[in-house]
Design brief:
With 228 residues, this protein is mainly beta. Helices cover 15% and strands 42% of the residues. It has helices at residues 12-24, 64-71, 127-139, and strands at residues 7-8, 28-30, 33-39, 45-55, 59-61, 78-83, 86-91, 94-99, 121-125, 144-150, 153-159, 169-175, 180-185, 196-201, 205-210, 215-220, 226-227.
C-alpha cells in the first residue's frame, strides 16, 4: 500500500461518533474499512456505525478519550499509518507518535450481526423528547427509564422504580393495544442527541436507530421488564 493511501483525516462527524463511543467503552478496536463498532465492558450496550472515511488498517486504542484529546492539540491533522505499531498525527510543525494497544486487552463486539429476537414495540423518539427525558432524570436524580404500554398509549417515564414516592417525568410517544413495562437504566442510554426509530423486544433487547447519524445502538433491558 502506498503511503498516501495510509494517510487520512477524521471528519467532525466521525470525531463526534468516537467521543460518544468513548462513553460506552474507553477502548476501541478499529477495523480496516468504514465500519466502527464498540461494546461496553458489561456487554449490555453495543453500538455500530458507518463512517465516511476508509480506515487503512486494523488498530487498537486503549484510551480513546486520551487519543481524541491528543487530536485536539491540532486544528486539522493528518493521520499517517505508515507503521504497524503506531500512528503519526501531524500538522505543520507539530507531530505526535501515538502507539496502538494490544487487541487482547480490549473488550470487542462479536463479529456476527446483531438481530432482535422479536420486534414487539416500535416508536419514534424525537431529539426534543430524548433531551427532556435525560434532563428530567438529571434534575430529579432518577436512575430508571421505562417504556410503558398501558391505557392504549406508549409512554417513556424516567423514575426511581424502587421508590414509590419518587418524582417522575413522562412523555407519550405512541399508541398500543399491549400492556408492558420495558425497564432500562438511565446510565445505559448512552446515545448521541438525535431522532431515533426504537424497536424493543420482550426478550430484553432494544435497537435505537439514529436518523441523524449512520449509527445504531443495541441496549439490554433490565431483567424485571414485563410484557403482557
Amino acid at each position: 500500500m502506498k503511503l498516501r493511501e495510509r494517510t487520512m483525516k477524521l471528519s467532525d462527524k466521525t470525531l463526534t461518533l468516537l467521543k460518544n463511543f468513548s462513553s460506552i467503552n474507553q477502548s476501541i478496536l478499529f477495523k480496516k474499512g468504514n465500519s466502527l463498532k464498540t461494546i461496553s465492558v458489561m456487554k449490555n450496550i453495543l453500538a455500530e456505525a458507518t463512517i465516511e472515511e476508509d480506515l487503512p488498517t486494523d488498530f487498537g486504542i486503549y484510551d480513546l478519550n486520551q487519543f481524541l484529546n491528543g487530536l485536539g492539540l491540532h486544528q486539522n491533522p493528518d493521520l499517517d499509518f505508515e507503521n504497524q505499531g503506531h500512528v503519526v498525527i501531524r500538522e505543520g510543525k507539530s507531530r505526535t507518535k501515538y502507539f496502538f494497544a494490544d487487541p487482547q486487552v480490549i473488550v470487542t463486539p462479536p463479529d456476527k450481526e446483531i438481530t432482535l429476537p422479536t420486534e414487539d414495540v416500535c416508536f419514534e423518539l424525537s431529539t426534543s423528547h430524548l433531551d427532556k427525558l435525560l434532563k428530567a432524570a438529571a434534575i430529579y436524580q432518577l436512575t430508571d427509564l421505562a417504556v410503558i404500554g398501558e391505557d392504549g398509549v406508549v409512554k417513556i417515564v424516567v423514575r426511581d422504580k424502587k421508590n414509590d414516592t419518587s418524582n417522575d417525568f413522562s412523555i407519550v410517544v405512541g399508541e398500543t393495544i399491549s400492556t408492558f413495562s420495558f425497564n432500562f437504566k438511565v446510565e445505559n442510554i448512552k446515545i448521541l442527541p438525535g431522532t431515533y426509530d426504537v424497536v424493543v423486544s420482550q426478550k430484553l433487547l432494544s435497537r435505537f436507530t439514529c436518523r441523524d447519524y449512520d449509527v445504531t445502538y443495541y441496549i439490554a433491558l433490565e431483567p424485571d421488564s414485563t410484557f403482557g
